[in-house]
Amino acid sequence: MDLGLQGRSAIVCAASKGLGRACALVLAGEGVAVTITGRDEARLKATAAEIGSATGAVVLFAPGDIATEAGRAAALSACPSPDILVNNAGGPPPGDFRDWEREDWIKALDANMLAPIAMMKAVVDGMIDRKFGRIVNITSASVKSPIPNLGMSNGARSGLTGFVGGLSRQVARHNVTINNLLPGPFLTDRLKTTMAGAAKAAGKSVDEISAQRAAQSPAGRFGDPDEFARACAFLCAASSGYITGQNLLLDGGAFNASFG
């Protein structure tokens, strides 16, 4: 299926690894000139080279923390007028809300709510002028089904979801869409690290813990990052202009409801 994205440009945030990297790879394969961001410059540079080699696309990289003004400025300097924006950032740590101070909350909000809003603010008017724009925010399945020990993530990402619900309806008539992708557990480095920590705490092997958690999903497995990336690319397609303000849950059926 031709997504009609040949010659378009994109910023994909936090894309040196994980779901962000997968999205950048698939978009590059569709002929998109991709700019990726990330905090680890060496890893980011290597990822850009790998994606460029695999796809033949132009892949630029902008080192920096997207949760900071400097990080966002670097991304926008490398790609000032993107047709596509994929917002992404690592989630805040788990814990008990009684232990969190105001500074912890501000950091979570900066990364998972305010940074995506700042990036949208920077690019949406240009998209409107060009009559084409696709914005995809990578949030979390916890927006639909809150995870008790991830209170900061639940709160910050839900705040972003509410904001997008309003903004998306204001820009849709200009062929600018804004949607959210809500991942459950996908087989990324972050998940592997989480499984290793859980295995150590339980005195079990990583394989045992991983098998137990995968079995809890109706799909009987973790998600493949490529599956996630192709859903992202679909929302970015030229033919997806009538899909906006939506929250697409990719969790293997874990969220049990007849209606979303």
Structure description:
The protein is an alpha/beta fold. Helix content is 47%, strand content 14%. The protein is built from eight helices and seven strands; from the N terminus they run E-H-E-H-E-H-E-H-E-H-E-H-H-H-E. The chain has helices spanning 18-29, 41-55, 69-78, 102-130, 151-171, 189-202, 206-215, 225-236, and strands at 9-12, 33-38, 59-63, 84-87, 133-138, 176-183, 247-250. Strands 3-2-1-4-5-6-7 form a seven-stranded parallel beta sheet, with helices on both faces. Helix 1 (18-29) crosses helix 8 (225-236). The radius of gyration is 18 Å and the shape is globular. It starts with 8 loop residues before the first strand and ends in a 10-residue tail after the last strand. The mean pLDDT is 95.
Spatial sequence of strands, sheet with the most strands: 3-2-1-4-5-6-7
Total strand segments: 7
Radius of gyration: 18 Å
| Shape by Cα distribution | globular
Structural class: alpha/beta
State the helix count: 8
Average pLDDT reading: 95
Give the SSE string.
EHEHEHEHEHEHHHE
Model regions low in confidence, pLDDT < 50 over at least 5 residues: none
> What share of the residues does DSSP label as strand, in percent?
5-15%
Please estimate the helix content: 40-55%
Oligomer: single chain
How is the main sheet built?
A: 7 strands, parallel
Distance between the termini: 28 Å
